[in-house]
Amino acid sequence: NQEEFMQKLAAIKVCPVVVIDDAEDAVPLARALEAGGLPMAEVTFRTEAAAESIARIAREVPGVIVGAGTVLDREQCARAIDAGAQFIVAPSFSDEVAQYAIGHGVAYCPGTCTPTDIANALRYNLPMVKFFPAEAYGGLKTIKALASVFPQLKFMPTGGVNPQNVNDYLAFDKIISVGGTWVCKKDLVRAKDWDGISRACHE
Ligand code: 3PG
Q1: 83 contact partners, CB below 8 Å, separation of at least 6
Q2: DSSP-derived secondary structure letter, 152
Q3: H-state helical runs in 19-138
Q4: CB 3.0 to 4.6 Å from 107: which of 5, 48, 158, 190, for a disulfide?
Q5: Which of 34, 52, 130, 154 is catalytic?
Q6: pTM of the prediction?
Q7: 42 tagged catalytic
């Protein structure tokens, strides 16, 4: 559920966003994340392999907390949860996804970047939101301004977060974790460079 997910996120601090084209890559990729010390994977529904990848990680790599990203509608949310997703992330906010995820006891972290987006999320008493795309929408400065009017809320900035700015984000106490694709870069996945992914986790 939401509280459990937040505790895990707060401990890991970086949620690797992964784009998997071939479900055969899912298990070695998840093991590389675990070996690198970031035992979490947000598998994006931007590829056909997403649901099968989540199912394989959930079955074969139990040490990795696996969830779904880029979940835009109820149908994708249902497929993600059926496959074993332990959390649902999106670039946007959706009532139907909120209702479905919460109804199934699965954490939902919607994408927001304006006060109105956040107010929509708060109708479901969500304790945290993703702030996306973080760097393009003003980064830490904007999050601090939003946090001043939503003091109870935690944020997960994603979009443009990288090894150079990650510590600035994580130093703000309202930021529970960051998300990003830099750990599982496309070329590393394509080259099946699992050691390279573990090294990126360490970095
Ligand atoms: C996402 O899926 O959340 C974004 O693509 C992550 O943004 P990044 O590629 O800048 O890390």
Answers
A1: 51, 52, 54, 55, 58, 68
A2: T
A3: 26-35, 50-60, 74-83, 95-103, 115-122
A4: 5
A5: 130
A6: 0.96
A7: yes
Q: From the CB of 111, is ligand 1 less than 6 Å away?
A: no
Per-residue model confidence as pLDDT tens digits over 8-20? 999 999 999 999 9
Specify whether the CB–CB gap between 183 and 157 falls below 8 A. Answer: no
pLDDT digits (tens, 9 = 90+) for 93-103: 999 999 999 99
Mean pLDDT of 137-156: 98
* CATH code reported for the domain at 2-198: 3.20.20.70
Atom of ligand 1 nearest to the CA of 91: 3
Averaged pLDDT of the chain = 97
Q: Is the CB of 110 under 6 A from ligand 1?
A: no
Q: Which of 14, 181, 189 has most ligand 1 atoms within 8 Å of its beta carbon, as the pocket-test mutant?
A: 181
The dihedral formed by the CA atoms of 146, 149, 155 and 160, expressed in degrees to the nearest 10: 0
Per-residue pLDDT, averaged over 112-141, amounts to: 97
> Which sequence spans correspond to the domains of the chain?
2-198
Could you tell me the distance, in angstroms and rounded to a whole number, from the CA of residue 17 to the centre of ligand 1?
7
